Amino acid sequence: MNLDFLFYPKSVAVVGASNKEGKIGNAIMKNLMNFGFKGKIYPVNVKESEVMGLKAYKSVLEIPDDVDVAVIAIPAKFVPQVVEECGQKGVKGAVVISAGFKEAGNVELEEKLVEVARKWNIRVVGPNCLGITNIENGFDCTFNPPERQARPGFGGIAFMSQSGAFGAAILDWAAKHEVGMSKFISLGNMADLDESDFMTYLGEDPKTSVITAYIEGVKNGRKFFNTAKKVTLKKPVVILKSGRTEAGAKAAASHTGSLAGSYAIYKAAFEQSGVLEARSMRQLFNYAKALAMQKPAKGDRVAIVTNGGGAGVMMSDGLLERGMKLAELSETTNEKFRKAIEEGKLPEHMSYKNPIDIIGDAPSSRYEIAMRYALEDENVDVLVVIALFQSPALDEGIVEAVGRMQEYGKPIVFVAPGGEFPEKMARRIEKTGVPVFETVEDGVDAVYALVKYGQYLEDTM
Amino acid sequence: MNLDFLFYPKSVAVVGASNKEGKIGNAIMKNLMNFGFKGKIYPVNVKESEVMGLKAYKSVLEIPDDVDVAVIAIPAKFVPQVVEECGQKGVKGAVVISAGFKEAGNVELEEKLVEVARKWNIRVVGPNCLGITNIENGFDCTFNPPERQARPGFGGIAFMSQSGAFGAAILDWAAKHEVGMSKFISLGNMADLDESDFMTYLGEDPKTSVITAYIEGVKNGRKFFNTAKKVTLKKPVVILKSGRTEAGAKAAASHTGSLAGSYAIYKAAFEQSGVLEARSMRQLFNYAKALAMQKPAKGDRVAIVTNGGGAGVMMSDGLLERGMKLAELSETTNEKFRKAIEEGKLPEHMSYKNPIDIIGDAPSSRYEIAMRYALEDENVDVLVVIALFQSPALDEGIVEAVGRMQEYGKPIVFVAPGGEFPEKMARRIEKTGVPVFETVEDGVDAVYALVKYGQYLEDTM
């Protein structure tokens, strides 16, 4: 399924484009014009002759050019007629922002919309959605203003959301945390295109390396399962499914009309189709960030290198509580450590039982030795590096040292708890390709995702 | 137990004070001088006549003034002799930064230290610790420089840590997240003063409203249990205990020498003594922040007001998964909502079944009505307010509106997911006394702490 026409349109019509501040059709125009989108923009407004300095048309039919995508933000009852005109015009995709369809009890109106779209072979996003965003080319037809909802930088994580509001929060959050994203889709009512269609598309999208989603219920269970099974062999899929409890399911029913169904069935379907299930927003991003930046692990044996004993203990607990193992370092590795200590390259009071505690006064050179020994050990599948940057002994050479460790081809997760200085270092380390997390528990999530997805691939392929 | 002499000293001797950059005795001097501490500082150094512009003394005995606290940062083997001199001088407390005692196998040296201290009735913090900090008066004898480890503002949360490095990370983290703290104690080897002693002191400290701790193992189980049982009746105690798993316990044994003992026993002891157990750093702070800012809940029935359906569903799941309930709103409340909708004060398509979804275009006036109705309902013990600030419809009047809700005397937890704008609003809302959290899951933690501690008090008192 190729939906490139939706995300890389050469020309877009905005039906309901408006000069009036506060109108959705005004906000969409601004967002289309403000993030670098290079395609043509054609405002459509029955009353205005010009919108935001661009010539406006009474109907898409009047536009003297091909139109790839129509973004529709007008009262619901007029939407089917506009889609009809889009069909006559040869429009390929319609993003229907308008609410007032099935979610408001107007089931027939939504059926009518789908009927017209099918007749003309138009693919529909929504209705009742926030729009879609392609971070790569700045095609952003959502309607929240940038001063309220920042846009993330370009990166490998795609996100689709059954909740527009939560989707907006996610984009805003990703921007603040400097997590790069590829594409965002507000799914809305999924009258036509649903989560499985987008999963298929994103599975083939070379700009997306991890697919993430917030859903309350899937539209078609069988289709979802078969799609997920195929896509997860190509790239990781991480889903936050809400409506897990009775109260949550009730709330979901009144929110998106999703019959959440038994959570146990979802859980089993995720498990069997290789979908990683996140239980919270932060976990969703921890999983996604790890998988976007590192290769899945070949096994569950983790080595920890730390300059703080306490953090090493907490990391050990976290890993074991999530079903992973601490790697038992080989005799060869122990011997290497013993020799380095003898030669004065490593301090006498350190512990080289895993967690490898290189103690509080460790400079980056000491990290480098310990990281190498751990990564060279065949009993180690994943390396966790914990750095408490509050210690002034830890020099900035750690950035390059960690970067060099990627030559071993084993996944690495970095944890740097604290405030501003660690955060600054984190962003620098991430430029070398190693993901950095703010807390031990976030790091545990990251390792879990790499191990769990690796296991699934191992078991399946 | 009054340890005010340790945290509010009139005069401090720094034994091992140094002019040399990079020396611990230099870093301690700087920190004592840099955060507003008004007491007298007497550097002690056998070789220097002046340190950092202050007259230096060869021994504490030469200081021509009373000395309340001696901070000791010299090689371990000289420490007992210095403590002996401190005793002769009438020093009341010694903070022993020096490492090289029990943790390095030198058990006898540590026993010697304790013996001398007992003889002179000197209370000892450490040895092998990072120092202590009183945020209130700027008395900070820790040794990490501020450019690596920021200091939080003054507030009600005290923290003690068996891991100095993790303690430093916590302070740095609290500063970044603008969480106010009262006192910080790096426990070190706990040769004399232990976690129970400090718990007793902090329990009586009027500047501390919540006591938090990171521990790997307690020094004396019976003492801890009895102390906790008393203190939790006065104020909440939140503990992050690591070494819960076999691998974690092993790592703890090599880190602090703690025989972590069976985790099941700790768990039971926490439960029975009213200690809230946090499983991660973030949870520790979520619990502490909620309890520092709001009163414990009288029950477990939670109402949710939200402008985003999805976030309401996730919050419902989170609360139920942690054993809480969604409040069933009374018929009176339903009637009020119906009336307000009829009168056009609330929108037709909103849901007033809990979660109360006032939908995406809600301004603060709509929040105010919904919050009041929820808080007036006798079936509601706690109110959760979720605001997706990405919607430009939500005006800044929400700050004052939420502040006004405190008149009902029920605990309120606010959740504002996203990036910079929500964060800015969060800090403003917190000035009214309502704690704000970044994600739904953090908000769930906050409610849990208020409910769980409230239940304990209810059952015990």
Task: Give an overview in words.
- With 461 residues, the first copy, chain A, is of the alpha/beta class.
- Chain A is 41% helix and 17% strand.
- Chain A has a 7-stranded mixed sheet, with helices on both faces.
- The radius of gyration of chain A is 25 Å and the shape is elongated.
- Chain A starts with a helix and ends with a helix.
- Chains A and B meet through helix 5, helix 8, helix 10, helix 11 and strand 16 of A and helix 5, helix 8, helix 11, strand 16 and helix 15 of B.
**If helices are DSSP runs of H or I spanning 4 or more residues, what is the number of helices of chain A?**
16
List unreliable stretches of 5+ residues of chain A: none
CATH architecture of the largest domain in chain A: 3-Layer(aba) Sandwich
Number of E-state strands of chain A: 20
The chain pair with the largest interface is:
A-B, 82 and 81 residues
**Gyration radius from CA atoms of chain A, angstroms:** 25 Å
Task: Detail the topology: elements first, then pairings.
The structure is a homodimer of 461-residue chains.
Chain A: H1 4-7, E1 11-15, H2 24-34, E2 40-44, E3 50-51, E4 54-55, E5 69-72, H3 79-89, E6 93-96, H4 107-120, E7 123-125, E8 132-134, E9 139-140, E10 154-161, H5 164-176, E11 181-186, H6 195-204, E12 210-215, H7 221-234, E13 237-241, H8 246-256, H9 263-273, E14 276-278, H10 281-293, E15 301-306, H11 309-321, E16 325-326, H12 331-342, E17 356-357, H13 364-376, E18 382-386, H14 398-404, E19 412-415, H15 420-431, E20 436-437, H16 440-460
Parallel strand pairs in A: 1-2, 1-5, 5-6, 6-7, 10-11, 10-12, 12-13, 13-14, 15-16, 15-17, 15-18, 18-19, 19-20
Antiparallel strand pairs in A: 3-4, 8-9, 8-11
Helix pairs in contact in A: 3-4, 6-7, 7-9, 10-16, 11-16
Domain CoA-binding (chains A, B): 6-101
Pfam family, one (chains A, B): Ligase_CoA_2
GO molecular function, one term (chains A, B): acetate-CoA ligase (ADP-forming) activity
